[in-house]
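Dear colleagues,

For the upcoming journal club I promised to circulate an example of a predicted protein-ligand complex. I picked one with zinc ion because it came up in last month's discussion. The inputs are reproduced below in full, followed by the predicted structure.
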Amino acid sequence: MGITLPLDKICLRSGILCASCQRKVDEGVISREELSVLKALAEVEAGLKDFEGRYVRAIRYGGNLVILLEASTRIPRRLRKELASRLKDYGQILVARYGRDPEETINSLIEPSRIIGADEIYTPDGSRYKVLKIDKKDQHTVAKIEEALKEIARKIYGVEILIEYVASKERKPKISMEKRDIRSSLEKLGL
Ligand SMILES: [Zn+2]
C-alpha cells in the first residue's frame, strides 16, 4: 500500500536527498517542480492507508498543475484536498487517474461527467484532431479545465484534442459524414 514514487520517501520527507536521489534531480530526470509534488505525495500518503498508486508525471497548464497517478481505485477526495493545500503555490491542482488512452484519463478528471463520443477530423492542412464529445449540460465545469485536458492529451499521449459540447439528443453517433458536414464541423470548432 502507498504511492510508488521515483525518489526515496525518507529523502523526500526529510528534505535531505541521498546521492542517488540527488543525481536524478541534477540530471533533470526529476524537475524542481516535480520535487515539490513528490514531497507533497510522500507527506500525504501516510494518511491514506487504503490507497495504492504510482506517480506518473506532473505537467503545467497555464499557471496550474495536473498530477497523474496510476491507481486501481478512484483518487480519494482527501488526496486531492491535501495536495491542493500543500501545493497552492502552483495554482489550481488537478489529480488525474492515468489511463491507457487520453479518454480514460480525461474521464477521471471530468467526473461525474464523461466523454460520450469521439470523432477524428483532419483539417485542410492535414493536421489530425480527436474530437471528444461531452454533454452540453456539463460545459460549465468541463470548460474550466479544457486547457488541462488538451495539455494532457498533447504531452502524455501525443494527441491533439478538441472538445465539442453536444446536446443530449445528438448523442447517437453518426454513421457517415458528408463533406459539407465536415466543413460545418470544422467551422464550429473554429478551424
Ligand atoms: Zn534517496
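Two points we might discuss: The longest strand covers residues 52-61. Residues 7-8, 11, 17-18, 20-21 surround zinc ion (CB under 6 Å).

See you all on Thursday,
B. R.
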